[in-house]
Structures are given as structure tokens and as C-alpha cells.
Design a protein that fits this description.
InterPro entries: ComF/GntX_DNA_util-trans (IPR051910), PRTase-like (IPR029057), PRTase_dom (IPR000836)
Organism: Mycetocola tolaasinivorans
Pfam families: Pribosyltran
Strand order of the largest sheet: 1-6-5-2
Protein name: ComF family protein
CATH class: Alpha Beta
Number of strands: 6
Structural class: alpha/beta
Family: Belongs to the ComF/GntX family.
Helix content: 25-40%
Radius of gyration: 16 Å
Number of helices: 6
CATH topology: Rossmann fold
């Protein structure tokens, strides 16, 4: 799965994202949307004849929406000048991912999402990689292990949608990987 990200999820970017998501700092949305917009542009082929990408946000959790009053990924996409396509929803509420291993995260999210039937107005019921169709990208705020993104792509695939890859605002360093800023 191709993965494009704008920021490394550590230090200042991690603090800004957490403030935006968990501490009512909606004023940070514009500043965080700019790097996401650059990642979206970078992920697209250079040919201008292709239609704009179809950006499918990972669905927010109901508890998070009640707490915040907004869905961070949708807000970021809109602030980046994009139109999110809400094709995914939760089939069941997975447990909290915090502290889980890679395998535990994958198990926790297994078949947790479902994709809505794809409207014909998106170009094709299958949205394949046909050069005449827009590419479909799953979008999330942070990628830690990739389990959420893989589950989203699986759910889309079950409806015949072939995702080109995933776009995230920030990518967490892999566990055990060295931190280049500290070497």
C-alpha cells in the first residue's frame, strides 16, 4: 500500500496534532491542513488530464465527535480545499488502540469498517485504476502501524473500490527505529 505523509509524528508536529485533536485547538486546523494539502498534491500523478483524487476519510468515532464537536480528518481535508467522500463507516466499535502491538491492532480492527455502496456519480461502480477515473485515497490524521488504513482499504475493496493508497498528515516512527533527529 503506497503511503504518503506530510510530517513525522514526533516533537512539535505531534504536540500540534494532539492539541488540535484533544485540546480544542481548532485554530491549528489551517496550519495542519497546509502540509496535508502538499502531501495530497505530491501523491498525484503529474498528468493534469486526470480528475481530482477521491479522498475517503477514515471514519471518526462517535465518542470523539461528541467530545470535540468535529471530525479532525474531515476538518483537515476541508481546510485543505478538498471534498471528503464519506464512503466508510464503523461496522462495529473497535477497542482502544493505545498500547496494542502491531498484531493486536490488526486483530482489534479486523472487519471493523464497512464501505457504503459506491454512488455511480463517482465515475464508476468499481473505481479501478483506469486512467480515465480519479484515484481513490484513504485519508487519516496519523499512521502508527497502518492497521487502520489497511482495514479501510479492505472495506473499500469489499465494495469493489481499488484504493491507490493512503495519505496521512503524520507518520509515527516505527517502533525500534532510530530517530534521525537524535543521531
Amino acid at each position: 500500500m503506497p503511503l504518503w505523509w506530510a510530517l513525522a509524528y514526533r516533537d512539535a508536529p505531534a504536540r500540534l496534532i494532539l492539541s488540535f485533536k484533544n485540546h480544542d485547538r481548532v485554530d491549528l486546523c489551517r496550519a495542519l491542513a497546509d502540509p496535508l494539502a502538499r502531501a495530497i498534491r505530491a501523491a498525484q500523478p503529474r498528468e493534469s488530464a486526470l480528475p481530482p483524487p477521491i479522498l475517503v476519510p477514515v471514519p471518526g468515532r462517535a465518542a470523539g465527535f461528541r467530545r470535540r464537536g468535529y471530525h479532525p480528518v474531515v476538518s483537515l481535508l476541508r481546510a485543505a480545499g478538498q471534498r471528503p467522500r464519506h464512503l466508510l463507516s464503523w461496522a462495529r466499535e473497535p477497542g482502544d488502540q493505545l498500547g496494542l502491538s502491531i498484531a493486536e491492532r490488526a486483530h482489534n480492527l479486523r472487519h471493523a469498517m464497512r464501505a457504503r455502496p459506491v454512488p455511480a456519480r463517482l465515475g464508476s461502480p468499481s473505481l479501478t485504476h483506469d486512467a480515465n477515473l480519479a484515484s481513490v485515497w484513504v485519508v487519516d490524521d496519523v499512521c502508527t502501524t497502518g492497521a487502520t488504513l489497511r482495514e479501510a482499504i479492505r472495506a473499500l475493496s469489499a465494495q469493489g473500490v481499488v484504493a491507490a493508497g493512503a495519505l496521512v498528515l503524520a507518520r509515527a516512527p516505527r517502533r525500534g527505529a532510530s530517530n534521525p533527529s537524535r543521531n
